[in-house]
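Structure tokens please, single chain.
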Amino acid sequence: MNPVQLVPLKRHGDDRGWFAETYSQRAFAARGLSETYVQDNHSLSRQAGVVRGLHFQTPPHGQAKLVRCVRGSIFDVAVDVRRGSPTYGRWVGAVLSADNGDQLAIPVGFAHGFMTLEPDTEVIYKVTDFYAPAHDGGLIWNDPAIGVEWPAPAAQPILSPKDLALGRLADFDSPFPYDGRPLAPLVNQSSG
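Here you go.
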């Protein structure tokens, strides 16, 4: 089973609107996703072209994430950074939007980031460990060794000073072990 999974949202609608379960422990376990989430995070990006990432937390505070976009749209990316993985440095990406409702389940051992495709985009994501500043890490968004094919909604991506200072994959000594599941392309989505 692919370690990174695109989780479609099943909406039940009528003339009033729709209802959906965004997370069900039973349904996720049936997909092989048994993480226990301990915190929800919510971000607002005012402009299209904001890049957040590529982030991770190192052991023993690694974070699996369940990401969804509740307003606007994003190009969401996961990069394999598990040492010894045959897909080390490869990435998968998916467009997550308020319209499609899709979610991306990203396990520990992957760097995560996204680019907003519309102004006033909001993203909510669950994580499996609390924020631990001493274990906070990441990789630069445009590392040529990774080669993420970011869309271009803005002339120049907008990043925080922290994200602009992130290092390169070539200089990263991964503390994440390979679990025997190579990264595979997401169905009908981007990968590199």
